[in-house]
Amino acid sequence: MDTLTPSPVRPSGPLRRAAAARVALWLDRRRAPESDGPAAGPVLDLAGAADAVQDLLPPAPENRSSGQLTAHGIRVVGPVHGGAGHRRLMRRLLSEASSACPAARPTAIEYCVPAVDALVDARLDQVGGWEAKAMRSRAGIAGAHLLYDMHRRELASPQWTGAVARGAAAPRLLWSTRPGAGPDRGADLARRLLLPGTAVALSPRSLESFARHGVVTGPTVPDLAEAHRVVGVLDWFGIRLDDLDSPAG
Question: Global pTM?
């Protein structure tokens, strides 16, 4: 064996990879620990994972009409389920930014991956057939990657670049993994949502599962080709992600 042959580079741990990708990990305490499911076992020690947490989503207030505040004062608005809801919300935020002082509160737009999957899966179940069944639980991630690309282009528009130049805080995207996803599923979603400049909200058990068992080897960039493929198949079934957000959303 040639001793000068370099050893293959081992992939970074998921927490280090998230930090390198400029992805903020948030602890989601908006629901009781029991919502992770009885199979999750007792409340787990986060070990070193707690050090990676950059913000906290406390228990949600009853009235969220103006958004929820994180422990660090970031306003969380939404959730949105697709491009239509995102566009409406960005127009509202731009209007607020145009009239706000430079110290306006930073904002995160929430996109709940399991909620999108649940809405689309319910329609696929109505369609029936093995072809529709094969598309279950694919819409959430595909929609997230397309939304990320849309969000970047929106922030690069003259309107938003001008608002940011005047002191407004550019909104970020927040990927949430509950309700509907257990610890391992939440960790898997987080692994596929390490998109630069965004935040991922994880329950305590999902955060620990991500820290211990997550394997992140791929690039932290949106997979737009796969996302468009999924959306194209859903369109064939008559399901459009833009239709998931009601006009009042």
Answer: 0.82
